[in-house]
């Protein structure tokens, strides 16, 4: 299985258009350290690809990766589908960019597909512009994407997008946020993609225990990162993202995994690990953990 990281930033990107935090200032001064929104492309053989999340940058991300370029026929594309981990804007706005009469299969859980029908009605909006199939995934039920790639969704959190409204936000039973476990049936390689992780519980530990590669939620360094930088009052945990650092952060658990590649993704622009020269970046790197970026490739 081939995995191409297309970008690694959380909502807003890095830099974010209306943010003058230290990180965004630095990324404006040094554009080469900036990164587009978090997403990966996955393929069994390199011929047919699946995108994990359709970010607001998806057209730039496709343009930057020759594996994803169209051909040989005038309107054939190696991209066969999009797997959605949730219905957040930063993971779904790109569906609007992928119209142009294309035919793709979009995979998501029931609440995610329902959100895209009712509250952010991409499905209706696109029905005359593209030929998308909407395929519901059941957590825990493996699904063969093609001869080689098998994917299983697993629940990570239950936070609905804010645009859904308050009543729905209280629905703790819904599978609003999932991770995907991808298996190559030929090599036996396993990769996990989990950009939203509220807590590292036993169920999550099971999903990653035997993985060869893990892409993990690296949104925030600390829980109070946004408020401590004056960038809003919400905590990381209230947004469904456990922090990277600290005794109860994800880094120590991630570092302890046997996986060969451990990669943070969905990193907010306020998170100092985006800065290659920061002490926080060094700390993460010393633990054997990489920080995602466009162009990073993994084979498992
Ligand atoms: C998230 O990852 O929690 C959301 O994308 C944040 C948001 O845009 O509200
Ligand atoms: Mn997000
Ligand atoms: Zn910023």
> Whole-Å distance between the termini?
5 Å
Q: What is the mean pLDDT?
A: 96
Topology order in helix (H) and strand (E) letters: EHEEHEHHEHHEEEHEEHEHHEHEE
CATH fold topology: Metallo-beta-lactamase, Chain A
* β-strand number: 14
Q: Any idea what the radius of gyration is?
A: 18 Å
Topology, pairings included?
Layout (H helix, E strand, L loop, with lengths): L1 E6 L14 H8 L9 E5 L5 E4 L5 H6 L15 E5 L5 H4 L1 H4 L7 E4 L1 H9 L3 H5 L6 E4 L6 E2 L4 E9 L8 H4 L7 E8 L5 E5 L7 H8 L3 E5 L7 H4 L21 H6 L5 E5 L13 H8 L3 E2 L5 E3 L1
Parallel strand pairs: 3-4, 4-5, 5-6, 10-11, 11-12, 12-13
Antiparallel strand pairs: 1-2, 1-14, 2-3, 7-8, 8-9, 9-10
Provide an overview of this structure.
- By secondary structure, the chain is α/β, with parallel strands linked by helices.
- The protein has a single domain (2-299), classed as Ribonuclease Z/Hydroxyacylglutathione hydrolase-like (Metallo-beta-lactamase, Chain A, 4-Layer Sandwich).
- Helices cover 22% and strands 22% of the residues.
- The strands form two sheets. A seven-stranded mixed sheet has the order 6-5-4-3-2-1-14. The chain has a seven-stranded mixed sheet with strand order 7-8-9-10-11-12-13, covered by helices on one side.
- The protein is globular, with a radius of gyration of 18 Å.
- The N and C termini lie close together (5 Å).
- Residues 10-11, 88-90, 162, 239-240 line the site of D-malate.
Please supply descriptive tags for the structure shown above.
alpha/beta, binds D-malate, Metallo-beta-lactamase, Chain A, binds manganese (II) ion, binds zinc ion
């Amino acid at each position: 299985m081939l995995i191409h990281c297309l970008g690694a930033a959380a909502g807003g990107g890095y830099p974010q258009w209306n943010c003058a935090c230290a990180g965004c200032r630095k990324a404006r001064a040094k554009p080469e350290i900036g990164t587009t929104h978090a997403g990966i492309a996955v393929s069994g053989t390199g011929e047919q690809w699946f995108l994990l999340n359709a970010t607001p940058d998806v057209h730039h991300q496709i343009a930057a990766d020759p594996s994803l370029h169209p051909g040989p026929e005038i309107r054939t594309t190696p991209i066969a589908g999009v797997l959605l981990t949730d219905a957040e804007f930063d993971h779904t706005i790109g569906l609007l960019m992928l119209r142009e009469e294309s035919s793709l299969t979009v995979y998501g859980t029931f609440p995610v597909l329902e959100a895209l029908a009712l509250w952010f009605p991409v499905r209706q909006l696109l029905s005359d512009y593209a030929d998308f199939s909407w395929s519901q995934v059941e957590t825990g039920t493996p699904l063969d994407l093609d001869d080689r790639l098998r994917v299983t969704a697993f629940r990570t959190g239950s936070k609905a997008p804010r645009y859904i409204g308050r009543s729905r936000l209280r629905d703790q039973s819904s599978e609003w946020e999932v991770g995907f476990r991808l298996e190559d049936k030929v090599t036996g390689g396993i990769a996990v993609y989990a950009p939203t992780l509220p807590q590292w519980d036993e169920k999550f530990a099971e999903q990653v225990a035997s993985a060869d590669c893990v892409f993990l939620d690296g949104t925030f360094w600390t829980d109070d990162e946004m408020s401590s930088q004056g960038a809003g009052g919400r905590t990381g945990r209230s947004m469904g993202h456990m922090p990277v650092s600290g005794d109860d952060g994800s880094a120590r658990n991630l570092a302890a995994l046997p996986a060969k590649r451990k990669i943070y993704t969905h990193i907010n622009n306020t998170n100092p690990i985006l800065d290659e020269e920061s002490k926080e970046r060094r700390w993460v790197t010393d633990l054997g953990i990489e920080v995602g970026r466009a162009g990073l490739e993994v084979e498992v």
